[in-house]
Amino acid sequence: MAYNMNPLVMKCPVPFPSTGIKCPACNRIQRDSSSFKTHARRVHKTLDVQTPSTCSACHREFPTFRAGSIHYARIHGEKSRKSPPKTASQDSVGILPSTPEMHDILRRVINRSPPTTCLPVPRSPKQPQSPSTQDLIAEFLNNSPTRPFTPMSPAQPTSNCSTDCPRPPTQEIAPPIPLHSRTTICPHPEPQVNQLIEYLRHGGNNHEPSPTPSDRSSPSSSPQSSAPPRVLHRPSEAVRNINADLERLKATLEDDPDDDAPSQSPPRPPPPEPTVPDTQDPPPQDHQQDPPTVPANAPNPRQPQQSPQRPPDMNNSQDALLPETQDENLTEFHRHWSTVFSSNLSWDEFAEQCEVFAAATKTLAISLNQPRNPPPTEGHTNQPRRPPNGRPVQQYNPNEAKRIQGLYRNSKKRAARRILANNSTTFTGSRQSAQDYFTEVFSTRQCDTNTLLNHLQQSVPPSEDDNSHLSTEMSEEEVMAKLRTASNTAPGPDRVEYRHLKRVDPNAKLLPLIFNRCLRERDVPKAWKDALTILIYKKGSSDDASNFRPIALMSCIYKLFMGVIGKRISSWAIRNNILSDEQKSARPAEGCYEHTYLLKSVIRDARLNKRTVYVAWLDLRNAFGSIPHTAIQTTLQHLGVPEELISLITNAYTGATTSVRVGQETTDPIPIRAGVKQGCPLSAVLFNLCLELVIRSVKQKAADLPKNQSLSHFETLLSCLAYADDLVLVARSKDALQALLDSASSAASVIGLEFRQDKCATLSFVNRKGEPARVDRNVFRIQDQVIPSLAAEESYRYLGVPIGMIHNINDLDAIIPQITEDLAAIRTSLLAPWQKIDAIRVFVQPALTFALRAGDPKKESLSAYRTALISTLRDICSLPKRSCQPYFFAQKSAGGLALQDPTAEVDVQCIVQAVRILSANDPSVTAAARAELRAVVRRSTRSNPSANLISKYLSGDSDGPCSSLYYTYSSLWSRCRVACRKLQVKFVFSDDSPPTIFADDSTTEAKAVSSFLHRAVQQRYGKKLMDLPDQGKVARCLVSDDYGNGSTWHNSGLNIRFKDWRFIHKARLNCLPTNAVKARWSNTAPTCRHCPEAETLPHILNHCRPDLVHIRHRHNKLVTRITNAVRFGNVTTDRAVADSGFPLRPDIVIEEDKKVLIIDVTCPFDNGPDALEEAAQEKVNKYLPLKEHFTDLNKQCEIYPFVIGSLGSWYPQNELLLRQLGMTKRYKSLFRKLCCTDAIQGSCDVFRLHMGWDQAV
Q: Which ranges form a coiled coil (predicted)?
């Protein structure tokens, strides 16, 4: 034991004498026991107060004054003296009758689980203990002669009535769980306990059994039909002996918080591996509770205990544990629906059962996610402390906070949409205007299938490979793989989400039964065809519905089904070259970055090499919603998709409807007679297949053009770039571009697509030898409509990136205000603080990352955003302005938040873009990038660009040919050179393989370059943090754990309370208001407010003697965590080893056969890199004599110090103990995190009690 406190014992007679009793320590008169406790807390802070009592009437001894007072009031009080004397019959019957009803109540008391509000009370081994409630009841049941049934066998009928009064047999009783050995304070006892207490308070003389539920509900029962005569149960001698201890039973039913007696631990279950808590269940509160890994009857870690020698026999009904109700419900659910979907149902019955299945899935998933031990709804809640200086407490709606935090845990996107709603543009038109617009959009459109088929035969070749696998039945593995990768998007009308399906059917045992029936029937249930459409703003006027993208919210079961089909078709189309390489949508590639790079490279090459280029950006009007269904069918038939699959897709749209949400209203259901639904995983695949006619028609036309009119970029022919419905056409002459536009117009008209000319644009850059470069305003037409042309200073935003002849330096200036507003919205939201950090990482940083990588940003534009980010993070973490900035960007292993510094992110994204472009999957992109890089190096160095020279150029070297460079313009490669120099990164280029990156004596390849560079930047910020003499000392200790177990709660909030969050960030940066800290800038004395030592944070958390009781609680919590994880041997806690001759008391000793493990827990302050190592070595040296003692007994003994820093540092050598305890990999990961947060919780409690912010419990 690390902290042993001397007891202060004052024996009190009951009743307390009116003259009072002197305090044993200072001889001051105390008028009652409560005033003595108050006096001891204030004056004798370092002593452990104990108040045993003796009854002055019967001289019985009790461990606490409260227990003695209860005894005296009930036995010797006025009510007891005034009560009439008991008759002989009453005395013979006894106080506690042995009836079946009493057996039932007692067994329910034994089997009860401790409520979540129970608080463990430490016991002192020096005081005697009266038997616990469970001990007395178990003794009564074991000695009772009227034991009518056994726990695991059918109960025998027992009745107090005569033979003509039938009574149904008692139902089978579940086996009892092991008795609770830990004394608890139960503010809200279970109903069974209340029933037993109420029975005992009324004297226990009413032995008439209560009617069974069947008796109460029987229609024949009436007041006139009196109950049969009672049969008094005469107790045996054993029962009368039990009744002699009735008063002890009464006293222990109401647990005493001052009870200090020892108890023994229950039997330990024998499984070879510890039970892994279910971490998928969402917690009911803001901080997650630790799921118990063993039954709740775990022993108190600071009392001497000896685990039983015999392991529990699982075949014995006395030792078997209760079955898991949740698992039974899930098994029954699978059994029922497997039978339903495997039976021979008609299609209408099957469709109806699918609706019932969806409702049942949602209900069961919600019930399974409910906490097994929900917190009590009643009880005293501490009121928030009013801030100083009279400032009011911040007001917020706790119900709304609970709702938004729960929503964020289940669906981050939906929560972010609600939080950032004020920052997004919504549709301002009327409901009727939306109804009219979308009714027209989804109306039937005609398509000449014969003409379409002729065009397809001329331009789009069909597949010649076997396609039978597209319509085969779906396997469990295929559906499970798709389900696991599905993100939890917004649900459809049935309200079933992906998380519900993952919870109820994680291994996809039921879903393939549904999907394969749909494949056989070539149809989907009617309920799957209904959708709700929401409007996402694109650009333009907010009252025009055409400026919004309609996203359909459909059943997640339907989307999962279509997702599997879409994956099959897209893989087949890419493998057989049905989809063109120019179409980057629905491909496993970074199409946006590749297309924007190619387009900017073409324009840059034209400016530098005096070439002419013509560009046309095309936008389709309601592209997804305007393709006729007959065009989709004809295209799929031509490409070779199986007829069964075409029929399924056709029937899925037959009778489909959608309702559009406008504000708080929705339109009437609108039939979908044309187009595909955006939001369906199959829609993008179908649209891309249909758009192939347009892409291939343009490519054919470009191939027929003369060489001087078609555009060849570094020996790669370019004519069309496509990303879904965003098209770009390029050519070398005006006539060539118009010819490409005419080809695109003709093909689009054939399949029923229409271009929106007001959102299209053209750029005509003329740069001929002998003439100045200029931008002409030429007239181009698309579907007989004039396309607007760009001026020299204008740009067109393509895939989110402005592209034109002049670089738009104000691009970031338009993005930064929006991101800053998002930061402010997250900062003021009701999310938990760790959720706010995660929201910044998930929703704010990616928006900036895309702009930094795809564009040409300037760092000056990011200064305002960085200032707002630092201010927001300090507010979320409750940090003062003097807190250092590297803390927010350092790696988690150093205790940092691991967020992205926007100024460093500019350089990171530049290098990432260069590496990814040079290693793209598209050969045309890679060839163009390598050719442009060689041209840039040749022009800049005036040397032949070898691989070695290119590597030196990109790495930022300044020797040899790179000593004096000739720059004519900025490019991706020149910016990459600057970025590599700033980040100290070495870029290695190869002629025939992807490039590699070196940084900080480590290397990575192209696929992992982004994470590699982010880690490098975080480590450099971590070094800056650790170099700080004051705010970096905890970081120097944390960094010894490479996996950052002490900081895993930053984003999840695992086992962290709100007050822990406000404490830990300040504590790790030494920004807490201790006297030693305040003395630096004020006249405050640095001495401790409770002792003469200097009040530093290490002193408060580890050394202040008045706080040793609370410091011991932190220590005990970790001991309990370890003992709960032990699954073998005899475990002894806090006890001197018998016959050793040493007064040493290790925290835990585990003995099994000839092997002994000595475990001792310590929580040193995280003061520098060697603090944990020194504490561990002290423990090893301390228990070496015990090790020698066991060695002399021919036993193998090992000493395992378990070290956790007071601020959550994890000692890496603790892994040796975890390996010895046989933990699974998953449980070890959770165990580390919980131990670190346990230490943080304990330190927070110690600090707050020291400062007087909390009251001691």
A: none
Find the distance separating the first CA and the last CA of the chain, reported in whole Å.
22
The number of folded domains in the chain is 3
Locus of tokens 């088929």 = 453
The whole-model pTM stands at 0.72
- 865 and 963 assigned to the same domain: yes
Question: In 10 A of CB 439, how many CB atoms?
Answer: 15
Please give the structure tokens belonging to residue 382.
């501490």
Domain identity same for 769 and 864: no
CB 441 within 8 A of CB 625: yes
For every residue of 450-469, DSSP letters joined together read HHHHHHHHHH-PPP-S--GG
From 79-88, 424-433, 714-723, the region with the lowest mean pLDDT: 79-88
Q: Which of 1002, 1033, 1064 is the last residue of a domain?
A: 1033
Reported as a single tens digit per residue, the pLDDT across 967-1017 is 767 889 999 999 999 999 999 999 889 999 999 889 998 889 999 999 999
Both 964 and 1075 in a single domain?
no
Angle between the N-to-C axes of helices 133-143 and 100-111, in degrees from 0 to 180, rounded to the nearest 10? 140
**1099 pairs with which residues across the strands?**
none
Distance CA 765, CA 768 (A): 10
- Does residue 763 contact residue 804 with C-beta atoms inside 8 Å? yes
Residue ending a domain, choose from 742, 773, 804: 804
Residues 635 and 776 in one domain: yes
Instruction: Round to whole Å and give the CA distance between 264 and 297.
Output: 10
What local confidence, expressed as pLDDT, does residue 1001 receive?
A: 84
Residue 694 lies in a domain: yes
Report the percent of the chain where pLDDT is more than 90: 53
Report the amino acid identity of residue 268: R
Query: What letters, b where the CB count within 10 A reaches 16 and e where it falls short, cover 550-584?
Result: bbbbbbbbbbbbbbbbbbbbbebbeebebbbbbbb
Helix 629-639 / helix 681-704 crossing angle, nearest 10 deg? 70
Examine the domain organization and report whether 611 and 741 are in the same domain.
Answer: yes
> Other C-beta atoms within 10 Å of 356: how many?
11
Alpha carbon 340 to chain centroid, angstroms: 34
At residue 809 the predicted structure's pLDDT band, cuts being 50, 70 and 90, is low
pLDDT of 62 over the 90 cut? no
Cα–Cα separations (whole angstroms), residue 851 to 794, 858, 905, 910, 1080: 19, 11, 11, 11, 44
Q: What's the CA gap between 112 and 398, in Å, rounded?
A: 32
* Residue whose C-alpha is closest to residue 721's, from 808, 594, 622: 594
- Secondary structure class of 1150 (helix, strand, coil): strand
Q: Could you give the CA distance from residue 884 to residue 1028 in angstroms, rounded to a whole number?
A: 9
How far apart CA 420 and CA 404 sit, in angstroms, is 12
* Residue 416 placed within a domain: no
Average pLDDT of the chain, as a whole number: 80
Q: What's 1167's DSSP letter?
A: -
Shared domain check, 847 and 763: no
Domain that holds residue 1059: 1042-1251
Burial 1225-1247, CB ≥16 within 10 A → b, else e? eebbbbbbbbbbbbbbbbbbbbb
For 539, counting Cβ atoms within 10 Å of its Cβ (0-12 exposed, 13-18 middle, 19+ buried), the class is: exposed
For 703, the token pair is 């191939």
How far apart are the C-alpha atoms of 618 and 615, rounded to whole Å? 10
Indicate whether 448 belongs to any domain.
Answer: yes
Q: 99 in a domain, yes or no?
A: no
Q: In terms of domains, do 1166 and 1194 share one?
A: yes
204 near 97, Cβ under 8 Å?
yes
